Amino acid sequence: MTRDIDIKSKDQVEKINRLACETPYEVWLYDGTVMLDARSLLGLYVLVGKQAKVVTEDDVDPRQLTRLVAKMA
Length: 73
Description:
Blueprint lengths: L1 E6 L2 H13 L5 E3 L4 E3 L3 H4 L5 E6 L6 H11 L1
Antiparallel strand pairs: 1-4, 2-3, 2-4
């Protein structure tokens, strides 16, 4: 399951990482070329200024994912 997100700042990257670490399921970010584990802070900094897709397993509740992405924005 995926949702789009615009990553605008390093503060947002840190927020995304914190929220991903709090979830009971894996969260990934995909920018069209690379898939990054959202729980790995260092790799996420390459996404600043880019649009990415928040990716989770298909069994995650779509409403839960939508709320998570809204918090990340």
